Amino acid sequence: MNKVKDKWGFRPETSNTLDLDKTDIDWYRRIVEKIPGLQSCIFCGSCVSTCTVNRDGMSFREMHLLLRRGEVQKLEKLVAPCLLCGKCALVCPRNIDTRSVIYNLKILMYAPV
Amino acid sequence: MHLSDHPLFVWPFMAGVVFLAVYLPLIYGKWLKKTSYNHFKILLVNFFSTETLAAIREVITESLLHLRIFRFNKKLGYMHMSLAFGWFLLIVVGKFETMLFTHDGLNQFYLPIFFKYFYPDGIPQTFKGVFFLTIMDLLLIFILSGLVLAWLKRFRSKMLGMKRTTRHIFPDRIALTFLWFIFPCRWFAESVTAGLAGTGGFFTLYSGKALASFLPLEYLFDPAWWAYSIALGGFFIALPFSRYMHIFTEVGLIFLKHWGLKTGDRENGYADFEINACSRCGICTNVCQLSADAGINHSQAVYFLRDLRYDRPSPEVTENCFLCGRCSQACPVDIGIDYLRLKQRKEEVNGAAAPYPWSLPAVRQNRSTDVLYFAGCMSHLTPGIMQSTKEVLKKAGIRYSVLDEEGGICCGRPAMQAGFADQAKAVIEATTRMIHQSGAHLLLVTCPICYKVFDEEYHLNIPVMHHSVYFNNLLHEKPELFSKSNLRMSYHDPCDLGRGSGIYMQPRETLSRIGRLVPVAHEKDDSLCCGGSLANLAITPARRSLVTDAAYSNLAASSPDYIVTSCPLCKKTFSKGNREIPVIDISEALEMSIIKGTSSGEVLKVKSGKQTVALPEA
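^ Those are the sequences you sent over. The predicted structure of the assembly is below.
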């Protein structure tokens, strides 16, 4: 690999491929059960652009993607800064209750029943 | 005295009374045991004060007369009053009646209750004797008329001003059935007695004679009194497990409230009194917009409190509420419903969600700043409000700076409403530091959500003002800056500003000075929630918009030129969807009135966006 880098000045990134048969999308299923509207997300990023705590690492779009891919261990740093102000839900063109998604995710993460 | 001295039929009644006399002190003692030493001291101090008299007064007006329910609906008030006050008088006057016969204040405990059984024909032909007979019969008619209304309410609730009544649970049904039988049984027993003796009050004597014409009364005498006693005893035994627990608990609650215990404080037992003092009258379900507009009928205050009493409410019930405060406002028992709900949310989240090191904007200390403007998340989302506010401040020559010009953090209230108290606390601490660093003399906020939390949870060393109040003061100081127009405006009270903070008059005064304020059907403490409230964590967007539409049509009914609010979230919520009448913030209305002083109203068309408004001459 280093040889490649020496020669070309760059090298391919490590693979992001996921085995979808093995990923754990239990959380995604639970969230979608409560907020079915999430499935209509078009990943436009309006939520991220209006977010107050985006500069602290919150990104609804990225969070949603990771949730779908079952990479739940990466979710915490994305969800933790959220203060549930709800602007993302107000600007969502698909009228998804994004705030509810984060709230329920926080519950799953911190206070599982 | 021996057991056999008492007739057998009084025992069901006596069993009920003994049960209550043992059970109620035990359970109240258990709740009060939670009171801390400090709270107990407060209780003791207030015990020897005029607060006790105030409490007695409230017990009479609310527990007996039910004046607050009269304000909601007169027939409903009469129904509650006739049962509570009527029954109370029946016992008290009955006591005096028995004293007339026994000349002994300490006569048998059950004597006033079953008086006619023991003295069926011993009526002295004196003024006093006839007087008591008449009064007791009048009281019985009073209660029975209320009972008829109660039956009507069960089957035709609309006749008593209730769009819907509370759904009952099993213990309620049992207690209710006994209660419904008590007074008809008493009437029947007294009528049978009067019919047999041939003497009695005007009401029972005639009903007795009517019964005697077709019934063998001598066989019915004992069964009738037995039935009355069983109905009473059954009701008393079912009472602590049903909604009728409120009868005694409400009295305790009123005294504790006046003696200084605070609402929502579970640690001192007050919450237990609150939860059990709910009579499930269902008035909260009638004012709740969720049931009126959105078809949600399971999470109202009455059901939340009921679940809290018997078991833990499901998260969905706790979360599905705007916390708009309409139910707390209407509650005849004055239960702090919103506080209890918040408390439950906190418990659900269980201190989870660690505080996060948010990055805060740098604060430049500016000695020449008088006013520090905190826009908050929602005003950032509606930049028109920020611009107008700044414009008005500039025109008025006020030295100001904006705390979160380049983005700030949230005020903490949304997280608090969701139950994440620790997270909110961290934000509050950080923002407090920022505000104190700025060196300003006044904090100005354009968002009622922020205002409420700044006012209640932040302990700042400078005063906080909502812009609707601040601009009203400005209007008094510099009236020459603003001009009056003929524009008709209806005002929408944001929940957190109106019911939440008690600010109703200042924005109205402002609007009536710069335009013409038109009244709407639901306003001030009866105002409707816009449906955008951040406090509801469970409602779907589609149902939310149903609430919004209903609130909008309330404001648009008098077809004003503008709907004015003083909350960015209300404005944003109303602006979703195609609205005929533009919804603007009070700062925008003020900015218009400043600029309009010189122009013919061209500016107005620009401000209201795509909509063109017919502009009457100023």
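Residues 98-110 of chain A form the longest helix (13 residues). Chain A has a mean pLDDT of 87.

Shout if you want it in another format.
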